[in-house]
């Protein structure tokens, strides 16, 4: 009987040990003090792996920009499609599929039905054209294009001045052209029109756009122009004790080599981070318009200069944004960082990389206040005016619906 009781006691202890091991609780014998058990359990519950540091913070206001641009982009695309038809030839609804594909045809037909203040469907077979009011507004685009021409010429020159050899593949210009506001026939209406500034020559089997005349007055970045406009006064005394300088909680520093930053709402920098970031803000760096071959790629000043190049490229676009693929197209010509996306995420106070939309997009943060773009160019002002016609109209929707159903 005693042997049986001993085996039972041993089995009970073994079961208790195995259950503690399964629960990851340290095995404590009964003769240890109670305070030791409590302290051990507390140490176990408060220990473990440290949570991963969050390196990506969403900016909902800029994500919202991508959502708000979906409908205007489709409206403007349909406007361009109607205007691109040969003279006196209307756009028949049956030809939509040929121009935009079977799937997108239904999106455009729904858009036509939803916005009778802009588009009107008449005739048999049905054709789509502008309403009288939309036609009057559409005529203002020519004026906006005239105002845009000197802006586009200067932006093209600045873009070429950022490249190490003042040249860039023509296909890259075509790739980023819509973001810069270039017309589809920019080669004929801009490049050929200004032979004193631009030329197209073959190099290594590819057509390149060359800069013919360096303009020193344009070698001023948007960051430098903003600082000059704000009248930033920098204390340049060498004996200033940096520890006595008040650290701004938002990371901004009034200096000639500082970037305007806007940290995400979920980012909480500590004092150590702000001190290091302020030293980085004060770090001088060469102008993005100087040739990148002159500098050592491993130098911190050169790495900061690369951020200045990205900042300037985004500043040359109409909406201060570009897809990551478009930005990467400048990699070889502008000596951009090898790990470009990681660099953008690291400097999330200056840039914002969002995956909203069909492609990932890079925003320049200081170009926006919330979801609103700062300083719209004449072409964007025209686009906003045209899209603003999307109000409720007095057109009979039944007529449009019956015409659309006839096409289907």
Instruction: Please count the beta strands (DSSP E, at least 2 residues each).
Output: 11
* β-sheet strand percentage: 5-15%
Spatial order of strands in the largest sheet: 1-3-2
Q: SSE string, helix = H, strand = E?
A: HHHHEHHEEHHEHHEEHHHEHHHEEEEHH
Quickly give the structural class. mainly alpha
Q: Sketch the major β-sheet.
A: 3 strands, antiparallel
H/I helix tally:
18
Q: Helix share of residues?
A: 40-55%
| Principal-axis shape | globular
Give the overall average pLDDT.
83
From the alpha-carbon coordinates, what is the Rg to the nearest angstrom?
Answer: 31 Å
Low-confidence stretches: 20-48, 233-245, 392-408
Descriptive overview:
- Pfam families: PORR (PF11955).
- Residues 57-393 form the PORR domain.
- This is PORR domain-containing protein.
- One of its GO terms (molecular function) is RNA binding.
- The chain has 408 residues and is mainly alpha-helical.
- It has a domain at 219-369.
- The protein is 48% helix and 10% strand.
- It has 18 helices and eleven strands.
- The chain has helices at residues 2-22, 34-46, 60-68, 70-83, 96-100, 102-114, 132-138, 141-162, 170-180, 186-191, 222-230, 271-282, 300-315, 324-328, 331-334, 340-346, 378-387, 397-407; strands spanning 91-92, 119-122, 127-130, 167-169, 198-203, 206-211, 321-323, 351-354, 361-364, 368-369, 372-373.
- Strand 5 (198-203) and strand 6 (206-211) form a beta hairpin.
- Helix 8 (141-162) crosses helix 17 (378-387).
- The protein starts with a helix and ends with a helix.
- Mean pLDDT is 83; it is low at 20-48, 233-245 and 392-408.
């Amino acid at each position: 009987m005693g042997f049986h009781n001993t085996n039972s006691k041993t089995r009970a202890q073994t079961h208790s040990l195995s259950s503690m091991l399964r629960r990851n609780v340290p095995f404590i014998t009964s003769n240890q003090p109670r305070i030791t058990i409590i302290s051990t359990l507390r140490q176990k519950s408060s220990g473990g792996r440290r949570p991963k540091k969050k390196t990506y913070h969403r900016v909902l206001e800029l994500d919202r920009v991508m959502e708000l641009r979906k409908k205007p982009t489709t409206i403007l695309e349909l406007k361009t499609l109607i205007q691109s038809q040969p003279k006196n030839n209307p756009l028949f609804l049956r030809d939509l599929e040929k121009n935009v594909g079977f799937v997108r045809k239904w999106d455009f037909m729904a858009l036509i039905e939803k916005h009778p203040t802009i588009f009107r469907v008449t005739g048999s077979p049905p054709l789509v054209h502008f309403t009288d009011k939309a036609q009057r507004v559409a005529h203002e685009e020519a004026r906006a294009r005239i105002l845009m021409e000197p802006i586009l010429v200067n932006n093209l020159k600045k873009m070429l001045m950022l490249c190490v050899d003042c040249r860039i593949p023509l296909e890259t210009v075509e790739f980023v052209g819509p973001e810069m506001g270039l017309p589809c026939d920019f080669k004929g209406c801009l490049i050929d029109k200004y032979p004193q500034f631009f030329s197209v020559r073959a190099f290594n089997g590819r057509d390149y756009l060359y800069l013919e005349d360096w303009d020193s007055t344009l070698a001023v970045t948007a960051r430098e122009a903003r600082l000059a406009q704000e009248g930033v006064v920098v204390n340049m005394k060498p004996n200033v004790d940096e520890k006595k300088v008040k650290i701004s909680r938002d990371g901004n520093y009034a200096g000639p080599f500082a970037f305007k930053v806007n940290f995400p709402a979920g980012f909480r920098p500590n004092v150590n981070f702000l001190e290091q970031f302020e030293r980085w803000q004060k770090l001088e760096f060469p102008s993005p318009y100087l040739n990148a071959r002159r500098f050592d790629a491993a130098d911190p000043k050169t790495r900061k200069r690369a951020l200045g190049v990205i900042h300037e490229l985004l500043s040359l676009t109409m909406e201060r944004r570009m897809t990551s693929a478009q930005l990467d197209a400048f990699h070889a010509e502008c000596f951009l960082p090898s790990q470009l996306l990681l660099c953008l995420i690291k400097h999330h106070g200056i840039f914002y990389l969002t995956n909203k939309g069909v492609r990932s997009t890079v925003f320049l943060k200081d170009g926006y206040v919330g979801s609103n773009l700062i300083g719209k160019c004449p072409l964007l002002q025209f686009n906003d005016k045209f899209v603003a016609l999307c109000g409720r109209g007095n057109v009979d929707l039944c007529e449009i619906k019956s015409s659309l159903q006839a096409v289907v």
